[in-house]
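ARCHIVE CARD
Drawer: 12
Card no.: 0347
Subject: one protein chain, sequence and derived structure
Cross-reference: see card 0346
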Amino acid sequence: MDHRPPHPSHRQVGEPRLPLLAVPFALIAAVTVVDVLAPPDVHLGPFLVAAPALTASFAGPWMTGFVGAVAVAAQVSVAVVRTTATDLNHTFQIIALVLISIFVTLFAHLREVHEKQLTQLRSVAQAAQEVVLRPLRDRMGPLRLASVYLAAEAEAQIGGDLYAATRTPHGTRLIVGDVRGKGLEAVGDAALVLGAFRAAAHQEGDLPTLVAYLEAAVAADPDGADEPADDPGEAFTTAAVLDIPDREMTLRLISCGHPPPLLLRGGRAIPLEVDHPAPPLGLTRYVDTGFAPQSFSFEPGDVVLLYTDGVIEARDAEGAFYPLPERAADWPGDGPDALLRHLCADLLAHSPGGSLGDDAAMVAIERVTGG
């Protein structure tokens, strides 16, 4: 099952919050009544500017302008009742109120335009996430899967963390990774890695050849040149790539500078540390190394947890990192979906205000049968 953070329900742009509209109108009525009854040397008219100014903070330009017009009409009424509309004091109050109403109406218009732009950006971000980071299937051969993506920014829906899974004739291959950097550039790099994985995962015969293909895709110049970038550390992706055969009770892992997966078995969380990790994708050309897969036992009932560093680098109010192995080991065991629900709730509770400092992704894989 693929979990996505629920998108907040945004009100329609420019739609007034009806309960709040009572406040400016009540303010206009109160100031008008008190101003009419006040002694001749007391003038409360300037307080009427608060009505359109308050309305501009939550309503659109049409409603703000309407409230401003009502406030001006109220000020004129006060002037007529107390003296005359042409009284110098009231004339200046009316002129000032008209000008301020025009100004805050313009402000409400600009805010409405900005909200429309944000709404469009949210829609684009959601569409990009659905295209780039596709939901994983609940079941792939003898495996049950679940995944989750937690964005650090409230308005963001996708970043540089990535995961994908694909079937091969003999099993399932998975990748989880983290692109260096943030923003649209990181999204583009993540899409590049995912596209290369999806294109080659079911074609390449063995895991080292697949990872070499991913390395070539990441290391290639964006314009198609073969020359390395001026800054060798400019772009790279940490990744864990797994091959899980259907009929062998093992998994094969190549780690490219990525945090080790956790094997959950018998109430323990066992880090799957490889003996010879490779550098992150995009940097292996600068290091004389190969891609050596390492095998680990993976039996029915076992769960493997893949994650990005946004999980283990989440800090609490005192600066302590999130203890993922301990918290994962405390999981009572009820499938990968329940595991991720448990960890997500616990991770957000660990982070101050439920806000992460970096994007985080997790994938849980359970072997259900022996094939």
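Annotation on reverse: The CA atoms of residues 132 and 191 lie 6 Å apart. Residues 5-11, 223-230 have pLDDT under 50 and may be disordered.
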